[in-house]
Amino acid sequence: MTTRIGVVTFPGSLDDRDARRAVALAGGEPVALWHRDRDLHQVDAVVLPGGFSYGDYLRCGAIARFSPVMESVIGQARAGMPVLGICNGFQVLCESHLLPGALTRNDHLHFVCRDQRLRVENAATPWTRDYAAGEEITVPLKNGEGGYIADERTLDELESEGRVVFRYLGVNPNGSHRDIAGITNEAGNVVGLMPHPEHAVEPLTGPTTDGLGFFTSVLENYLVSNA
Amino acid sequence: MSGENGKNGKNGRNLDTVEHAARTPDTEQPWAELGLKRDEYDRVREILGRRPTGAELAMYSVMWSEHCSYKSSKVHLKQFGDKAPHSDALLVGIGEQAGVVDVGQGYAVTFKVESHNHPSYVEPYQGAATGIGGIVRDIIAMGARPVAVMDPLRFGAADHPDTKRVLPGVVAGIGGYGNCLGLPNIGGEVVFDSCYQGNPLVNALCVGVMKHEDIHLAKAAGTGNKVILYGARTGGDGIGGASILASETFDSEKPSKRPAVQVGDPFQEKLLIECTLEAFHAGLVTGIQDLGAAGLSCATSELASNGSGGMRVELDDVPLRDSSLSPEEILMSESQERMCAVVEPGKVADFLAICEKWEVTATVIGEVTDGERLEIYWHGERVVDVDPRTVAHEGPVYERPYARPGWQDALQADDPARLPRPADGKELRAAVLALLSSPNQAAKSWITDQYDRYVLGDTVLAPPEDGGMIRIDAETGLGVALATDGNGRYAKLDPYEGARLALAEAYRNVAATGARPLAVTDCLNFGSPEDPAAMWQFAEACRGLADACHQLGTPVTGGNVSLYNQTGEAAVHPTPVVGVLGVIDDVARRTPMAFRDEGQLIYLLGDTAEEFGGSAWSQVAHGHLGGTPPRVDLERERLLGEILIAASRDGMADAAHDISDGGLVQALAESCLRGGKGARIVVPDGADPFVFLFSESQGRALVAIPRSEEVRFTDMCAARGMPAARIGVVDGGSLDVQGQFALPLSELRAAHESTIPELFG
C-alpha cells in the first residue's frame, strides 16, 4: 500500500498540481483534496500548496483558514498528522495558529522569484528527515508577502527549541526575521516554509532536485511510524 | 459619455427603443463623442433604414472602432492570408480568436500576442494587468489550457522621470496578475527609447495547449440554445476603452481618460479558466467567446454573426455591479473576467453547476433564435434590432493614403560609418562596458524576477535564455519554444526590412533553443493611420512580414494591430513585434545559452560584415540612428536554424546563443555570465576587432561545442555550407579577447546587472 498524501486545492491555489507531481515522483500517491470537502479521504499527510487562496485580497491565507477542509486539517494536525505548508500554505498555517508568527510584505515591496539557497536547520521533522542537519539546498522562492515576523520571545523560543527548520543563506529575499525561511510547531509534525521544494524535483524544470527530499522524507516517516 | 446619451433609459424613462428611434429620425446623437466619423454614422443609418437607438449607436461605435474593426489595417493584413505559406501544422488560421498549430502527438497549441498600450500609459498597473487577462481569455476561448505568458515591452528613455512611473507599474501589473493567475512568464523584451515616452508599448502573449479534439470555435448555432454570461459582474469600468482610448491619439487638451481603463481581478480569472476548461471537457459548450474590447457588444454580435445570425438577449438579466448603468453602458462596458457561452438547453443545468462549483456567477441572458437579427431587450422593450454581421464583420474598410516620408532618404543617408570608433584595446574595453551597462543591453533580471517562471512545473527555459520553453507532455518530453522580437530602430530605418528582421531574430531565437519554428503571431505597433508616413510604415512592415513568413514557411496565425501610438506629431518607431512558436520533440534536448564547462569550444556561425545602421553601439556610443539596417538573408536564417536544431537533436552543442543587438560581444558576455565561466577569444586573422565584436550582421549564432563533437559538428557545417569559425574556448574567469582586453566576470557582471536596479529599484 502506498502512502497517500493529500494536496488541498483552494480557489486560487496555483502550485497544487506541482505538489501532486512531486508526491508522485517521490513514490507516494497524491490525493486531490477540495476546499469545500471536510473529508480528508484517509490521507496520511497533507500539503497546503502555494498560490493565492481566495485571491488573498484580505490577508494571505486569512480566508482559507475558515474553509471546511481546514477544519479537518487543523484537527488532524493537532492529532499529529504531518502537514506541510508551502508559501501560501505557510501563510494559511500561520493564520490557522498551527504555526506562530506571520508573513508580511517583502521588505523591498516587490514580488521576487529566484533560486534560493537554504540551510536545513532541523532534519528531524517528518518533512526533512532525508536531509542532514546543516545541509545546504537550493530551491525556487517566489512570493510577494514572504517576510517572516514574530515577536522576540517567540523567535527566541523557536530558536531554542530547534523549531527553525530552514534559514535563508546568501540573500535574505524578503526581510524575514533572523533569516527564517521555515519553521515547525512544538510537536514537530507541522512545517511551513516560503520557498518551493515542489519546484525543485526534476533537473529539467527546477534549478536542482533538492526539493524531492521533502516528499521522500514523509513517505519514510510513514513507513517508520507504521513499522 | 455625454449627458444626452446618459439620459436615455437610465431609469427606464425616455427609453430609446427601436420604435422610438424610428419615430424620431431627427434626434441629435452623440456619434462624434463615441468616436464615429460622420460618414460612418450615415452608414449606420443607411444599414438600419432609420437612426440607431442609443444602444445600437453604442454597439456600432465600439465595434467599428479601429481597435475592433481593423478598418485601416485590414487591406494590408490581407497579405498574411494571401501570401501564407502552405503549412500542414496550421489547424486554425487567422480570423479566430487565436490560431491553432499542430505540434504532434495529438496536441495542438494556440498562441497570440496583443497590445494593451494605451491603457498602460494612463494607468500602468491595471493596464498591463488586464492586458494579460485579455489575452489569456482569448486562449481559453479556444478550449486550450493556458500554459505560459510573455511580455514584449517598450518604454521611454530609461532616465526620464515618467518612465519611473510607467515601468514599475507595468511590471508590477504583469506580475500581480500573471503570478496570481498561476501562469509562468517565460520571456519577452524590455526596450527603452525616447520615441516611446508618451506611448509605451505593452504587449502580452499567451500560449495554450489542448488536444486536437478539444478545439472550439466561437459561434452561436442551434435555435433555442442558451446564451450564458459568466464571470465577473458588469460595472462601469472600461466604458469605451476600445473606441475612445485605443483608437485615438493622446491629446493633452482633453480630460484624463483613466475611467476608460478596466480594473483586473486575477483571482476571478483563475476561476474562469478552471470553470471554462471543466465545462469544455464535459462537452457542455457549443460556442464560446471572451468579453474583451467592446464587451457584450462584441461578444453578442460576433457569436451571432458567426452562427446563423439570430439571437435574443435580455439585458436586464446581466448581473451588474452598479445598478444605475444604462443599457448603452452595459453594452459598452469592458469589465474584465467575463465570458459568454452558448449551451444547449439540456446542458444548461450542468454548465451552471460547474460555475457554482467554482463560485463563478453565471446567468442565462438570452438564446439563439431562428431569425437573422440580434435583438436586445431592456425592461421588456427592444433597444437593439440589427443584423449582427453589420456590427461585427461588415464595418467600414479604409484605403488610407500612405506615402514614404520625405525624411526617409536623409535618414538612410546618415551612414554610421562616419562615427568615431574605439581605436585600441583600451577603448574597446570601455566600449564593451558602456554597451553592456546601457539600459537596453543590461540584464533585465530586476524585472523578470518579479514574474513567477516556475509555476505549473513545466518551464524548461525562461529569461534570459533566447526563447522560453515549456514541456507539454511529461511522458514523451514534447515541448514548445517561443520568442518575441521587434527592433523599432531597424524598422524606423526601413520598415520593410525591419519586419523581416523581426521575424528573422525571433526565428533564430527559437532555433537556438533547439526547437523547430512552426508559426507566427504578431503585434503591429504603429502611429496614426491618418498620418500618411505612419501608414506607409505600416504598409511596408506588413508587406515585409508577409513576404518573410512566406519565405520561411511560418504562417501568421493571428495577432493584433495597435495604431495611434502617437502623441501629437510624435509617433513611436514602427514596432512590429513578432512571436515565433517552435516545437521540440524532447525538451531534454534543449540547448541552453550558458557556457558551463571549461574547454568547450566556441564557434561563431555565419558571416560578419560591417553593419552598424540602427545598432546598439551607435545608440549607446553616439545616440545615433541612421543608415540602413543589417541585411537579411532568410535562406541563411533557415540554414542556420537547421544547423542549430540538428546540433540540439544530435547532442553536438552544449550551448547556443543568438547574435542580435549588441553583436557578438553582447552574446559572449551573456553566455559567460549565465554560466559563470570566462572565455578566451581570438579575433580571426584579417578581421577588424571592433567590427568582429560589435557588428549586428544577421544570420549568426554562437555555439559551445564539446571537444568530442567538434569534428562531427564542423563536418555538418561544411557539408551544408554554413560558415563556422572557431573563435575561442570557454576558460578562466574573464572575457579575454586576446591582444585587445580582458574583462573579469565580476566587473562585467557589475556593469551588466546593476543598471536596471539602480534606475528603478
From TrEMBL, chain A:
Enzyme Commission number: 6.3.5.3, 3.5.1.2
GO cellular component: a single term: cytoplasm
Keyword Magnesium: no
Name of the protein this chain belongs to: Phosphoribosylformylglycinamidine synthase subunit PurQ
Gene3D superfamilies cross-referenced by the UniProt entry: 3.40.50.880
GO biological process: 'de novo' IMP biosynthetic process
Gene this chain is encoded by: purQ
Protein purpose: Part of the phosphoribosylformylglycinamidine synthase complex involved in the purines biosynthetic pathway. Catalyzes the ATP-dependent conversion of formylglycinamide ribonucleotide (FGAR) and glutamine to yield formylglycinamidine ribonucleotide (FGAM) and glutamate. The FGAM synthase complex is composed of three subunits. PurQ produces an ammonia molecule by converting glutamine to glutamate. PurL transfers the ammonia molecule to FGAR to form FGAM in an ATP-dependent manner.
Active-site residue list: 87 (nucleophile), 196, 198
Catalysed reactions, as listed in the record: L-glutamine + H2O = L-glutamate + NH4(+); N(2)-formyl-N(1)-(5-phospho-beta-D-ribosyl)glycinamide + L-glutamine + ATP + H2O = 2-formamido-N(1)-(5-O-phospho-beta-D-ribosyl)acetamidine + L-glutamate + ADP + phosphate + H(+)
Signal peptide: none
Subunit note: Part of the FGAM synthase complex composed of 1 PurL, 1 PurQ and 2 PurS subunits.
One Pfam assignment: GATase_5
SUPFAM superfamilies attached to this UniProt entry: Class I glutamine amidotransferase-like
Functional pathway: Purine metabolism; IMP biosynthesis via de novo pathway; 5-amino-1-(5-phospho-D-ribosyl)imidazole from N(2)-formyl-N(1)-(5-phospho-D-ribosyl)glycinamide: step 1/2
Family annotation (PANTHER family): PHOSPHORIBOSYLFORMYLGLYCINAMIDINE SYNTHASE SUBUNIT PURQ (PTHR47552)
Assigned keywords, A-Z: ATP-binding, Cytoplasm, Glutamine amidotransferase, Hydrolase, Ligase, Nucleotide-binding, Purine biosynthesis
TrEMBL record, chain B:
Residues annotated to bind substrate: 115-118, 137, 262, 334-336, 562
Catalytic residue positions: 67, 116 (proton acceptor)
Domain PurM-like C-terminal: 223-378, 598-733
Residue stretches making up the Phosphoribosylformylglycinamidine synthase linker domain: 32-71
UniProt cross-references to InterPro entries, sorted A to Z: PRibForGlyAmidine_synth_PurL, PurL_linker, PurM-like_C_dom, PurM-like_C_sf, PurM-like_N, PurM-like_N_sf
Basic and acidic residues composition bias: residue spans: 16-26
Segments passing through the bilayer: none
GO terms under cellular component: cytoplasm
Homology family: Belongs to the FGAMS family.
Protein role: Part of the phosphoribosylformylglycinamidine synthase complex involved in the purines biosynthetic pathway. Catalyzes the ATP-dependent conversion of formylglycinamide ribonucleotide (FGAR) and glutamine to yield formylglycinamidine ribonucleotide (FGAM) and glutamate. The FGAM synthase complex is composed of three subunits. PurQ produces an ammonia molecule by converting glutamine to glutamate. PurL transfers the ammonia molecule to FGAR to form FGAM in an ATP-dependent manner.
PANTHER family: PHOSPHORIBOSYLFORMYLGLYCINAMIDINE SYNTHASE SUBUNIT PURL
Protein name listed in UniProt: Phosphoribosylformylglycinamidine synthase subunit PurL
Organism: Streptomyces boncukensis
